[in-house]
Amino acid sequence: MIKEEHDLPVMGASQGPAPMATTVINIQTETSVPDHIVWSLFNTVYMNWCCLGFVAFSYSVKSRDRKMVGDLIGARTYAATAKCLNIWALVLGIILTLIFIILFFTGALVFSINIFHTLRQQRGYR
């Protein structure tokens, strides 16, 4: 015999031949929907080329709002859009920052070479 059949009845439960009614409660586990709000805030503050960081931040806030309401599908949709915009903002930010640094240093190098040649020519004409 199964052990549960030999347990004593619990506080006022019937001991007759009637079957026991069971109640099943489904508790949904908290599904994690990342809203990428920290990444969006970083892109908004530091790498806001073409305002992509700000747009990603707004989609992240929308995703968080949908998650709080209980609309997980809408939250995932907004989160996916925020993630895509964050990736583009990060990639464009890194590329454009590198281009700016390269242009700045090559411009400074060209400028210093021109100054050097100008000073050299002025010494030669004296």
From TrEMBL:
Protein name, please?
A: Interferon-induced transmembrane protein 1-like
Q: What is its main location?
A: membrane
Keyword field: Membrane, Transmembrane, Transmembrane helix
Where in or outside the cell it occurs: the entry states: Membrane
Where does it sit, as one GO cellular component term? plasma membrane
Q: Which family does it belong to?
A: Belongs to the CD225/Dispanin family.
TM spans, by residue? 37-59, 87-116
GO terms classed as biological process = defense response to virus; host-mediated suppression of symbiont invasion; negative regulation of viral genome replication; response to interferon-alpha; response to interferon-beta; response to type II interferon; type I interferon-mediated signaling pathway
User: What Pfam families does the record tag this protein with?
Assistant: CD225
